[in-house]
Design a protein that fits this description.
Length: 142
Amino acid sequence: MTSSVAGAGPSTYAPEPRPFATGWTIFAGVMMIAGGIMAVFQGIAAITKDSLIVVTRHYVYSMNTAGWGWIHVVIGVVLVLAGVALFNGSGWARVVGVAVAVLSMIANFLWLPYYPLWAIVLIAVDAFVIWALCVGTTKKAT
């Protein structure tokens, strides 16, 4: 089928941007919410001083476990909120998601001596979030 518009060149069809997220953005949003919830649980476990967490002495990055707990709770809440906002296609949620995922990776690296397995899992989740947010950019109509 040909175009009836005079002077129309090759078709440069670009889909209309949708107000909701698709593809990698949905993956990133789900991972942000899951990682944020796990970070909140991690923080709650540290704040309540559960016997699950072993505090080692003479570690370079030593800090009170309750202090670490509050850091993880705050990071987790921000990740969950940004993940929910990402489903609405918010541009700011993508930037905040990358920034907070980087902060979460650093916090979990410093958390390694307290609970290594949990910290490694959350570092991997944060890496997937950063990757999905950077890969899943949408193309604008030209």
